[in-house]
Structures are given as C-alpha cells and as structure tokens.
Amino acid sequence: MGMKPMRRLAAFLVCLLFLFHTGLAMAVEPGYIVYHGDQSRMRIAITVDDCYDMNNLCAVLELCQTYDVPVTFFVVGLALHEEDRDVWQQVLDAGCEIGNHTFGHASLIKCDNRQIIYQLQRTQQQLDAVLGYHYPMQMMRPPYGNTQRSNGTSVSAAIEKAGYARVVLWDVSQTDPAIAQRQVKNGSILLYHTNWKDVQCLKVLIPALLDAGYELCTVSDLLDYEPVATATDLYVYHYEDYE
C-alpha cells in the first residue's frame, strides 16, 4: 500500500475514533425515525402536539370519547400542570397515549446530547409528578421535526439512549379535512396541535376516516409496540449518566 492510501486510512481511523469519543457515532437501529406505519393495513394514528391549550385538548379528548378512538399526545413539559391531573388521567383512561415532545419545545439540532437527555428527562419527571405515578413514555417527537444537525450528525442516538422506542415524524399535516382525507393512506401518521383550527378539522375528519374504513390507533399500536405499562416506582433516566 502506497503512502497516500495509508494516510487516507489513518485519517479515516482518526475520524472514527473522534466520533466514538464524542458519542456521535452510536449505532441507531435502521428505521428508528418513522414517518408512517405498516402501509399494507388500514390503520392510522392521529397525533396532537404541544398541548398548551387545555380547552382544545379537552375538545380533542371529547372526540376520542365520542368516537371511541385514541390519539397520541406529544406533550411539552412546560404544558403539564398538576391542576390538570384529572384531564391527563382521562386521556389515559380513554386509551390515548402520551409521548415526549421535550420540556421547552427546544430545537434538538441546536442541543448537544446531554441537553437532549435533559429535555426528555424533565418532561418525564413532570408527567410523573402530574399523574402521581410513573408513566414511561416510549415515543418521542422532536420539535419542528428536526433530527439532523448541520454537521451531519443525528439527534436520534441521544433519544434512543434515553430509552425511546422510536422518533415519530408524520406524513400528513393538513387542517383542511377534505384535503387531509385525500392525503391519508394506509399507515399514515397525522400531525395536529391543540388549537381551534385543528380541532375543527378533527371534528370532520375523524368520522370521515372511520366511515372510509380506517382503524384509528395510537402510534405505539400502529408500530406494533406493547401498550405502556404504568408503574408506581418512579425511575427517571438521569441525563448525567449519558456518556
């Protein structure tokens, strides 16, 4: 082997060592970031982000109860308040799922791995405090759907390290119910928020999707994960443990 190829090999090995040392080259399971579920089945998942407005959240919850369908709420930790404990318990009693959307709606591509773990940890802690028991969130949605840093590294490794089963994005984001219904296909994940326009869309869209033959389920169910099992022993992942 000539000197130039040897230099290239040495440089490559140095880069690999640097990446592993900085924790940026951890292997992430293929397909860890999902935009949809199984496209061979007429099952879809409606997701609702942020959850700042409790009036609109309750309106979505009422739709879930009326039509006996669950949704997945990706909640921001700052939106979780102990005075809303009864509402969040009703969310779970209706068969809905709660996922992590960071504590302060931070753009994770601007965070290092420790900061990402901290954002996720704080939301988990806050949810547990509100519920009064441990509800281990297993799905995570990055704010703005951003997963790739400008240097080419992904935030997925840190999210997976924190114990989340999947990074969940979406393939439908439309508040016109007629357009949304046309865009929906088998396995779709739909993105909404707790605001008036989104609620009005869901009032029309949910019964229309049911009439069209779709089964509405949580993201975990869509991706064939077991339902979350709650626990009274509060264990929270410490971001200081992240290496």
Brief write-up:
The chain has 243 residues and is α/β, with parallel strands linked by helices. It has helices at residues 3-22, 54-67, 85-93, 113-131, 156-161, 177-183, 196-211, 219-222, and strands at residues 33-34, 43-50, 72-75, 97-100, 139-140, 166-168, 189-193, 215-216.
The description of the largest β-sheet is:
5 strands, parallel
**Residues in β-strands, percent:** 5-15%
Task: List low-confidence stretches.
Answer: 9-28, 233-243
| Helical content class | 25-40%
String of helices and strands: HEEHEHEHEHEHEHEH
What is the approximate shape?
Answer: globular
Structural class: alpha/beta
Number of strands: 8
> DSSP helix count?
8
Overall pLDDT score: 88
Ends distance = 37 Å
Radius of gyration: 20 Å
Report on this structure:
Strands 2, 3, 4, 7 and 8 form a five-stranded parallel beta sheet that branches. The chain contains eight helices and eight strands; from the N terminus they run αββαβαβαβαβαβαβα. The chain has helices at residues 3-22, 54-67, 85-93, 113-131, 156-161, 177-183, 196-211, 219-222, and strands at 33-34, 43-50, 72-75, 97-100, 139-140, 166-168, 189-193, 215-216. α2 (54-67) runs parallel beside α7 (196-211) and α6 (177-183) packs across α7. Helix content is 39%, strand content 12%. With 243 residues, it is of the alpha/beta class.
Secondary structure: elements and pairs:
Layout (H helix, E strand, L loop, with lengths): L2 H20 L10 E2 L8 E8 L3 H14 L4 E4 L9 H9 L3 E4 L12 H19 L7 E2 L15 H6 L4 E3 L8 H7 L5 E5 L2 H16 L3 E2 L2 H4 L21
Parallel strand pairs: 1-6, 2-3, 2-7, 2-8, 3-4, 5-6
